[in-house]
Amino acid sequence: MSKSESQKSSRSLAGIAGIVAIATLISKIFGLVRQQAIAAAFGVGAAVDAYNYAYVIPGFLLVLLGGINGPFHSAIVSVLAKRDNSEAAPLIETITTLVGGVLLLVTIGLIIFAHSLIDLVAPGLSQTTTGLEIRAIAIQQFQIMAPMALLAGLIGIGFGALNAADMYWLPSISPLFSSVALLGGIFILVLQLGEKIIEQKYAMMGGLVLAWGTLIGAILQWLIQVPALWRAGLGKLRLRFNFRNPGVQEITKVMIPATLSSGMLHINVYTDLFFASYIPQAAASLGYSGLLVQTPLGIISNVILVPFLPIFSRLAAPENWQDLKYRIRQALVLTGITMLPLSAIMVMLALPIVRVVYERFAFDLSASKFVASVLTAYAVGMFVYLGRDVLVRVFYALGDGETPFKISVINIFLNALLDYLLINAFGAPGLVLATVGVNLISMVIFLLLLDRKLGGLPWGEWLRPFTGLIAGTLATGLVCWGVLWGSQLVLGSEGFFVQLLELGLASFSGLVIFGLIVMKMNLPEVDIFVSRIRQKLGI
């Protein structure tokens, strides 16, 4: 790669990352507001508890198939990035026909077998009177949201096609429409019921509003991308059955094992909820705390994975492997720089974070403490969660979807074992710690396999920066804890604005310490990051 080409690539990467970051930030803010509205309206009551069980499969399909960086998105980008634009429309239309037909059958099956599937996900609900009420709500929610299976496939294919055509804004911001639809439903319900919304007799009504709002949001996500695909010449709503097209076969070669691999990963979510169904309010707590982690994680993962995936794909040939190794290291170091300090902050400040974000109306202090314990467990694993995803995308770029699939199969059994062991020791947080352990082991295995696949990785060069990053993370955590402790001695710990001020002081102090340590490390990734920030600020 020439110097001019490298500079062009760097500018392109910075531009893409900026677009994705802004759009994803907007979407995540709306997602957080949506979750705050749910918490304020329903707390950890039956409607939201049922929703967390009912959403497992439809939500799993939406994230798995329709999400940015999902297998459909990754497969489409990996193949189209290497092909001429004129080939895009026939490929997209054929893949849409194939996938749409399969997922239509899946949707019908979900509606028919809703009762059995809810019992499979949450068997513990059938053992108590309260559980039976939650089960009844969850079944109706599940049937309403079942069409999200079909919508997920259409959304994922559209996202991949738009990203391959260098269109990043719409895919990154489109989840906003889902949040807006759900917020609208909750707003209407609050207008009708007022404070009575938390009464047990209205739990079913609240549950149905959550389900319909979610489905309408998914429909909007798909509809908003259709005109963009048409204008870009990326296919129309046309049935095409040319399944023997080499490009179609290349996409399915990556898509099928990648889907199975990601699916196996999400089976771990089922396993977690299987055990959670025996712990009151555990499902709701997993949902609330998971969103607090997924908000920054989703923004940063999109900034890293979206622009890097086509780069990995273009460097897949053996003669480009030295450049590929450099890009992998760059992605992992950026993951460490962003994830590790956030992890330290969330571990040390879990309770004030939950209180500031959620604690109002139906969501009280006891709910905050329960959710904070789960959030702490989630925060511990932020780096390995994203680091594992980076390495999986490298395998996809190399045309290898089988290896991630095989590892994911092993992880199912490992996660179930760890769930069983850790839930007895730690309760609900143990379910999350089990997932963290699985992701850590997976990441190590992927690195070892890439070392063999790419003819050796520069381990010393890669490990040195992480020594400093880990030291910076520990310092960040200690500073956050110290500042929070000191400010609470002076200001107390009650009151929204007091909590917000203490949270801001502690997290800012921790980030400053981490920033000073990292700046002393002279990492090229930090220099690039700082120079881009200065350019955007005009400094």
Q: Note the overall shape.
A: globular
Helix and strand content put the structural class at mainly alpha
The termini sit apart by 30 Å
Q: What is the H/E order? A: HHHHHHHHHHHHHHHHHHHHHH
- Largest beta-sheet details: none
**Beta-strand content bin:** under 5%
Counted by DSSP, the helix tally is 22
- The level of helicity is over 70%
Unreliably modeled segments: 1-11
Rg value: 23 Å
Q: How many beta-strand elements?
A: 0
Average pLDDT: 82
How would you describe what is shown here?
The protein has 539 residues and is mainly alpha-helical. It has 22 helices and no strands. It has helices at residues 3-42, 46-54, 56-66, 71-80, 88-112, 114-121, 129-145, 148-164, 169-173, 175-193, 203-231, 246-276, 282-314, 321-348, 350-358, 365-380, 382-397, 402-426, 428-453, 459-491, 496-520, 524-537. The chain starts with a helix and ends with a helix.
Provide tags for this entry:
single chain; 539 residues; mainly alpha; 22 helices; 83% helix; 0% strand; disordered N terminus
Task: Indicate the topology.
Layout: H1 3-42, H2 46-54, H3 56-66, H4 71-80, H5 88-112, H6 114-121, H7 129-145, H8 148-164, H9 169-173, H10 175-193, H11 203-231, H12 246-276, H13 282-314, H14 321-348, H15 350-358, H16 365-380, H17 382-397, H18 402-426, H19 428-453, H20 459-491, H21 496-520, H22 524-537
Helix pairs in contact: 1-10, 1-13, 2-7, 2-11, 2-13, 3-8, 3-12, 4-8, 4-12, 4-13, 5-8, 5-12, 6-7, 7-11, 8-11, 10-11, 12-18, 12-19, 13-14, 13-16, 13-17, 14-16, 14-17, 14-20, 14-21, 15-16, 15-21, 16-19, 17-19, 18-19, 20-21
